[in-house]
Amino acid sequence: MNFRTDRRGFSLLELLLTLLLTGVIALIAVPGFLRYARHAALAAGANQMAMDMMRVRYLAVSRNCRYRLRFYQLDRAWRWEEDRNDNARLDPLEEVSPFQYLPAGIRYDCDGILGPPSQPVTVPSSPITFPGRVMSVGPTGRWSGIGTIYLANADAEHAAISVSIAGRVRVWYWEESARRWR
């Protein structure tokens, strides 16, 4: 009998072991990847909102008129409105942005944290601390008041976007272990 010793291919046992190892690695890696994806979505939502706040401030100064940013908590959205005649309402020729939405899995939320981020001493009463969920900026670039917007994801990680009256917009992240903002 003449047997060939130069076999080609893999045995069934080798293929099953490869599939088993791939499955074990996936079981270990997938939860970490999903947690990272939720954290990245929170950071993306906070950064997008901060960029829109800075853009609205730029538009107010460059176009020499008042702009308002409205937040819609239940819809997880926001948008800006132009107010050329400073009458605090939307008139026919004034520009309005399309709605911007928080990423999937991100919501306005302030449960279990302290605020404001610059001096965390009390529990925030609302995830949007601007009166009427509206903030406005005039042609000088000064905001109508200070405030913070709190966001959270499914892992109870929190981010905050704070606005100073002088116009500074800052994104913060809550460190649960230290009970502070960084």
**SS field, number of helical segments:** 1
- Which regions are unreliable across 5 or more consecutive residues at pLDDT < 50? none
Instruction: Please describe the biggest sheet, giving its number of strands, its sense, and whether it closes into a barrel.
Output: 5 strands, antiparallel
What's the average pLDDT? 93
Helix content: 25-40%
CATH domain topology: minor pseudopilin epsh fold
CATH architecture: 3-Layer(bab) Sandwich
How many separate domains?
1
CATH class categorisation: Alpha Beta
Strand order of the largest sheet: 4-6-7-8-9
Helix and strand composition category: alpha+beta
Task: Give the topology string: H per helix, E per strand.
Answer: HEEEEEEEEE
Shape: elongated
Strand content: 15-25%
What do you see in this structure?
With 182 residues, the protein is α+β, with helices and mostly antiparallel strands. The chain has a single domain (12-63, 102-181), classed as minor pseudopilin epsh fold, CATH 3.55.40. Helices cover 29% and strands 24% of the residues. It has one helix and nine strands. The longest helix has 52 residues, at 12-63. The chain is elongated.
